[in-house]
Predict the 3D structure of the following.
Amino acid sequence: MTPATASPRPGSLRIFATHPAVTTTVGMIAIAVVWESAVRALNVPAFILPRPSLVIAKIVSDLTTGVIAVHFRVTLVEVLVGFGIAAVAGVAVGAAIALVPAVERMVYPLVLGLQTIPKVAIAPLLIIWVGYGVQSKVLTAALIAFFPVLVNVMAGVKTVEPRRILLMRALNAGWWTTFKKVRIPSMLPYLFAGLEVAAVFAVIGAIVGEFIGASEGLGSLIIQRQGAIDVAGVFSVLAYLSAMGIALSIVIRIIARRYAFWAHGTEQATP
């Protein structure tokens, strides 16, 4: 009688198939293998499309030699400050537009008009007004990241259940109490959704500003390596930019699960 062969546990297979980190890692490895094989088989020159192995070697080299550190820090500061300005301005303006009809009629058309202008066209003006320093990149990042926060805050403030407002009126609650107890909790899931998009947009804005004119930053490093036809180096910078955006998105999701846990179907974390 032959012994029965052990079969993998269904639970393990389910975790392997559904866990986001596992699925993403397997997908990235598969893409890298196909990419590497195709480039080697077709003898594609490295200055056109480098192999993933060369890109990974460049990523490690940039990290170990410290080449990327200064540029990454400059861009990160621009992104964080621009993102902070966009978040504060987006919440303030979005709440004012949602709560005061006169403000909506006066301000919202101007905001829409500003949004339709390509930020690449505005960046040279910002450089003329505030110079080639960090300020112009911060403002470009803030301008690009501002609109997602604004729209989501407006939606969150407006989409409050009327019964909650009626209940607060029945309790003789003032305007500020109603805003704090009802409108802000209703707004938070929308706000964090907007912040997650705004974080990615802030990275794009900072790079756009650095493309126009900068001596430091990841965007400036991309321009330098493009001129030297260092395609693997460009891919390395893009990888660090992607890591920055993903890290910011993860941080915002963690904060959202702590302060807007009802929108994620999780219980409130204990402090």
User: Anything to note?
Assistant: The domain at 72-218+252-263 is CATH 1.10.3720.10 (MetI-like fold).
